[in-house]
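Structure in, sequence out. Go:
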């Protein structure tokens, strides 16, 4: 079974009867707390027992599988976190961190009840449902930020051969809100950093693992997907707002990235929203 209507930055709960399993393969970070009872983690990585108050941080690369003990029911609380859905919130450097952190390697983290994250999670659960949904989601996001904080602070730019250019690159590019990248050409960004487009492209590839244009395409398509959720906005206008003057090029790139056309994605999103109510 799945957590009841698992939400992005929204805490939900589910109860497992003795021996019942919870499985999930969502392409998202999943944060799960064993609120009551004893259970077992049976994922491919590090099968082990789970104690009351313990928290799991499951990466997008891992399949989740938790089984309740034969002796008791288990109350789980959990939420999901999808960095891609916070378009324009992160800097390029921060988004790169989440992309690298989501790769296979350490698919699940086990946090004891004494861990600051587990204690913060417990406090949010104890407060229960709130009428202030936006504030509650912001507090959950703060919990996520605190968990990833150490990794983000250590994700620094390596020393380079041209300190002045690299300093400007770190100050201007790495701290730029990711969505702003779609509004500047690589040539404009190179001028801001005081270097040639070729040198800028090399710095960008070293730092983010891909060329500026590939990253721009990704951010434009993420922005377009976000805009498509508004049924009143025409797809041709969304293409323009996302940086594409050619609707055919936009349609082609969107389908290549998400496996469906913009219009089909909009229909699927509308149906999914209706099913929630």
């Amino acid at each position: 079974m799945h957590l009841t209507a698992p939400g992005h930055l929204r805490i939900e709960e589910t109860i497992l009867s003795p021996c019942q399993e919870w499985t999930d393969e969502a392409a998202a970070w999943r944060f799960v707390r064993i609120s009551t009872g004893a259970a077992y983690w049976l994922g491919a990585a590090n099968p082990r027992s789970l104690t009351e108050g313990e928290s799991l941080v499951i990466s997008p690369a891992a399949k989740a599988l938790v089984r309740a003990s034969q002796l008791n029911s288990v109350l789980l609380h959990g939420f999901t976190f999808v960095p891609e859905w916070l378009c324009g919130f992160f800097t390029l450097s921060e988004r790169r961190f989440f992309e690298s952190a989501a790769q296979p390697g350490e698919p699940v983290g086990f946090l004891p009840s004494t861990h600051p994250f587990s204690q913060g999670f417990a406090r949010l659960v104890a407060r229960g449902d709130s009428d202030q949904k936006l504030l509650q989601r912001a507090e959950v996001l703060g919990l996520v930020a605190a968990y990833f904080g150490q990794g983000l602070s250590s994700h620094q730019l390596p020393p380079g051969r041209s300190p002045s250019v690299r300093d400007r690159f770190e100050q201007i590019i790495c701290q730029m809100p990711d969505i702003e990248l779609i509004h500047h050409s690589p040539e404009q960004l190179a001028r801001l950093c005081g270097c040639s487009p070729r040198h800028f492209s090399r710095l960008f590839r070293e730092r983010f693992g891909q060329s500026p244009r590939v990253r721009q395409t990704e951010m434009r398509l993420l922005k377009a997907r976000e805009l498509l959720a508004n049924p009143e906005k025409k797809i041709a206008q969304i293409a323009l707002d996302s940086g594409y003057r050619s609707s055919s090029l936009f349609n082609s790139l969107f389908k290549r990235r998400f496996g469906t056309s913009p219009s089909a994605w909009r229909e699927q999103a509308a149906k999914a929203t209706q099913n929630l109510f």
